[in-house]
Structures are given as C-alpha cells and as structure tokens.
Amino acid sequence: MRKQATIFALAVAMTGSVWCAEEAQTTALPATATPATVTPGEKLTIQYKWDAQQPYADKDYKVFVHFRKEGENKVAFQDDHGLPVKTSSPEWKGTIQYNKTLTVPEKAADGNYIIVAGLYDKAGRAALKAGEGVKALGGNSCQVGSFTVKDTKTGILAATITPEEAAPGSTVKIGYAWTAPEPMDRDYVAFVHFFKEGEKKIAFQGDHSLPVKPSSPDWKDTVRYEKTITIPANAAPGKYLVVAGLWSKGVPRPALKAGEGVKASGNNSYVIGSFTVK
C-alpha cells in the first residue's frame, strides 16, 4: 500500500495532474470567466474546456456547476447545463470547448468565488482527471476556475420628505441620498417623477443635476442633499409616489442598488418615498 501511494505521488509530481478516480476518461481543463470581476445582477460568461479520451459507452452526461464563496462549502448558486455534444457520440473526443452565460444573483455577496464542475447522470458522477491548473475535489468534482463578485452599483436610498402633507401650490423639501462605491462611467443626472398613487401618468416632475459629478472621484461614500419642489396649484388631492433614478441622454438608465425602504418600479426607476396632497 505504501509503495502504491509513493508511485501515485511521484506520478502527480511528474505530470502536474491529479486523477479523481483511476477509470477517468475525461480531463477537466481550466475555465475562463469573463469579466473576471462581476457585479451582482450582471452577466457572466464562462468558457468551459474538457479533454475527452474517448466516448462513454451508452452514457450521456450533463455538467453540474456549483459556485462557492472561497473558503465555504455551501453552494452559493449554480448553473448546471447540457454539453454541446453527446458524451456517448464519436464527437466526444479531444478538446470540447464552449461558452455559457449566466446572470449572477442580485443577492450574491462580495468576494471571490470558485467554479466547481463535473459530469453527472442519474446513476452518479463520472470520474474525472484534473488537468494542469485544475484542482481535484471530493465527489468527482474539480475546481476549474474562479471570479470575483464586487457590487459597484450606485445605491439609491429612501428620501426624507417634509412636510408629509401639503396643499396644492405649496412647497415640499425632499432629501435625496445615494451610495457610491466608486465613480460611474458618465455624468448622470437624477430624474424624479411624481405619480398619483394608482395612476401611470406622470403628474409632475423634479429632474435635477447632482451636487457632484458621478464620474468624478468626489462620487464616493454617501451623497446627500436637499431639493425643494412646488406642488402644482391644480394637483388633485391624494397620495403621491416619488419615483427616481439616474439617466443620461442616449444610453439606458443604469441599474441601482435599492436601499432599505426603496422599491424597484421597473425600467431602473425606484419608489423612494411619498407624500399627500391635501
């Protein structure tokens, strides 16, 4: 037994590879994640590679892919999928390479994630050989790559509104707040639409420039400021929702991270508060 272990260790040292099991017919090769750093809610494309020694007899495996936060055993999310060729067909030979795109969950925590993959069917998992740059794990699975999740989206926080009840023609002060992990790609401005509750038509609005340029180094931490709006004299009594977001001419509105008390309302707009016209 000691002699066999020594031979196995020597083989690993010479080849740089580890067999998940002796009967492995396929080698898992390193996967490439693009982009290497991704924001929750954004698309991530992974290029998978397998080196097939020969087809499997009457076995058409699928791929399981588990994403784990580095240092944790719990599966954070996954992307199981079928292969572009059947593993029982003659095409399952040599290097099999393809791309798969998934959306990183909005709730994915910041950190480094490892990509754990393998082949499976109803009967179980296929034995795999771990190629150079791939780490063999337990249960016939291999760590084939990694990527980083970092939430760089600007956040929008709940507004402070005073007074909460106001008459038509009077003014209301609205305190806006944005969280800025890092500068944005351009100088957006704020759009603010006021909707009478239950209606889809904009009753009036309060679009404005931000106190600091979002593309500048000053766009950091929490940006707070106040704006005063005048309620139109002909505004009908009732509750009004304050819907806000960022925009720039000619480009889609950026997705924002909704803070506590903020509700997404479609097309990257967010309900940040309300007041009553009385």
Question: Explain this structure to me?
Answer:
By secondary structure, the protein is mostly beta strands. It folds into two domains: about 150 residues, abc- transporter (atp binding component) like domain (Coagulation Factor XIII, Chain A, domain 1), CATH 2.70.50.60; about 120 residues, abc- transporter (atp binding component) like domain (Coagulation Factor XIII, Chain A, domain 1, Distorted Sandwich), CATH 2.70.50.60. About 5% of the residues lie in helices and about 50% in strands. It contains one helix and 23 strands. Strands 3, 5, 6, 8, 9, 11 and 12 form a seven-stranded mixed β-sheet that branches. Strands 15, 17, 18, 20, 22 and 23 form a six-stranded mixed β-sheet that branches. A hairpin with a 5-residue loop joins strand 5 and strand 6. The radius of gyration is 27 Å and the shape is elongated.
